[in-house]
Amino acid sequence: MGSKRIAEKMCGRLPEPWRLKKSQIQSSKGDVLDSGMVVFFESPHSYTGEDVVEFHCHGNPVVINLIIEEAVSLGAVIAEPGEFTKTAFLNDKIDLAQAESVADLISAQSKSAVIAANSSLSGDFSKMINLLTDEIIKARVLVEASIDFPEDELDEGLLTEIKGHLQKQSDDVESILQNVKEGIRLRDGYSVAIVGPPNAGKSSLLNALAQDNVAITSKIPGTTRDLVKALVEVGGVLIEFVDTAGIRPDPENTIEEEGINRSREVISKSNLSLFVQDVTDQKDFDLGLGDYISVMNKSDLLAEPIQNKEDLFYLSCLTGQGVKELLGAVQLKLGIDEGGETAFLSRKRHEVCLRNSKTLIEDSIISLGEGGALELVAESLRSAHYALGEILRPMTADDLLGEIFSEFCIGK
User: Fold this and answer.
1) Confidence bin at 58 (pLDDT 50/70/90)
2) What is the C-alpha separation between 208 and 204, in angstroms, rounded?
3) What whole-number percentage of the chain has pLDDT above 70?
4) Are 24 and 11 in contact (CB under 8 A)?
5) Residue 327 belongs to domain spanning
6) Which residues contact 6 (CB under 8 A, 6 or more apart)?
7) Looking at the DSSP assignment, which residues form a beta bridge with residue 233?
8) For residue 369, with 0-12 CB atoms within 10 Å meaning exposed, 13-18 middle and 19 or more buried, which class applies?
9) 123-127, long-range: CB < 8 A, 24+ apart
10) Do 254 and 134 fall within a single domain?
11) CB burial of residue 375 (10 Å; 0-12, 13-18, 19+)
């Protein structure tokens, strides 16, 4: 509020809305703080739905601070992180899923994540949820209309129609859930643990995958104590490779033992493990790895090359031979489709809301099939409707909004 008044005091008459105007930005004493451009976004057609004025000035931090200090002296208030987007949400310019996608776009670290975040911001995900909501409303109308006229026996054909309608909604929710799970993985990225006995070449493999010396390598066993990580873009998706401490049954000291404990924790949380062994000195390794690929390092020392098999790859971190093929295998193992299209980024809360809605819809179908009271069916559908509403515009959103918009940077 008051942005137009403050801006006119600093740079004179504003241009027509959405037009840039060259202007001298002045202090209240008449000192010229900068010569730049000003643009006025008039309510209700601005990003926030309120009057907004932007100064386009030089990037000198001193100049920027002087302009901000002058605006504050005239009554402006420094925005909190996410305040502009939060205001846009509260003024019905965007829904909550679109607001979340702004933060996702800012933090996106891969091409696929940027494209998917923009898709969410444009409303693609919201349209799908709104269509589902509309269909749930239709089912609620049919059921609640039948409750309003209890003297009329529920027509068998109408009952079959309602059940078929709800089954389709359950199937549609499941279809969206599959996309949501992919969207969550795309947003959060993947984690791959590099594990194995000491001195097998785990740190060398991390360096080869990252194409950088991110980890210290040494012939001395147990060099890696802390977790070393590197982000690598594979098929348009970020994968975090984690170099873990070498695991052996007889650690030499408490520091190495703590490193091994951390390795086990990383393995349990990773989407995939790369089990690295020295091809010339293979050791027994008893540890639950879950989904993994065996990597035989130092294959350049073999007299004759050995062909790769499924989930078994021979490579040389020294020469780089086989590293590219291993990345391809990791991509395939994680199900990353470089030519595929993920419609939107998603969050865990979206998945929870959709799963709750699906369960409630299926409860309604079961209740109808068993001849249950229509009041119970109506209540389940009302709750399913509410669960979907939580995705785009929660009815009690204060705590949720605080959590979501705290992720934003100042200026958004």
Assistant:
1) very high
2) 6
3) 83
4) yes
5) 191-334
6) 53, 71, 74, 75, 76
7) 238
8) exposed
9) 123/95, 123/98, 124/343, 124/344, 125/97, 125/101, 125/183, 125/343, 125/344, 125/346, 126/95, 126/97, 126/98, 126/392
10) no
11) exposed
Number of residues that this document lists for the chain: 412
d(CA 26, CA 71): 10
pLDDT per residue as tens digits for the range 295-316: 888 888 887 778 777 788 888 8
Same domain, 176 and 218: no
CB-based burial of residue 149 (10 Å sphere; 0-12 exposed, 13-18 middle, 19+ buried)? Answer: exposed
pTM above 0.90, yes or no: no
Rounded-to-integer distance, Cα 293 and Cα 286, Å = 15
Do 260 and 284 belong together in one domain?
yes
Cα–Cα distance for residue pair 241/243, rounded to 1 Å: 7
Q: What span, in angstroms and rounded, lies between the C-alpha atoms of 237 and 188?
A: 10
- Cα separation of 312 and 291, whole Å? 13
Tell me the per-residue pLDDT of 271-290, one tens digit each, with 9 for 90 and over. Answer: 898 989 888 887 766 666 77
User: How many domains in the chain?
Assistant: 3
pLDDT (average), residues 122-126: 90
The answer to whether residue 83 sits within a structural domain is no
User: What is the C-alpha to C-alpha distance for residues 357 and 380, in angstroms, rounded to an integer?
Assistant: 9
Residue listed under structure tokens 């979501």: 404
Q: How far apart are CA 41 and CA 396, in angstroms?
A: 30
Q: How far is 309 from 296, CA to CA, in rounded Å?
A: 11
How much is the pLDDT for 91?
A: 92
How much is the pLDDT for 23?
Answer: 94
91 located within any domain: no
Statement to judge: residues 231 and 357 lie in one domain: no
Tell me, what CATH number does 385's domain have? 1.20.120.430
Amino acid at 194: I
Please report which helix (H) or strand (E) contains residue 175, including its range.
helix 156-188
Q: Report the phi/psi class of residue 186: left, alpha or beta, with left for phi > 0 and alpha for psi in -120 to 50.
A: alpha
Single-letter code of the amino acid located at 260: I
What is the torsional sign of CA 172, 178, 179, 181?
positive
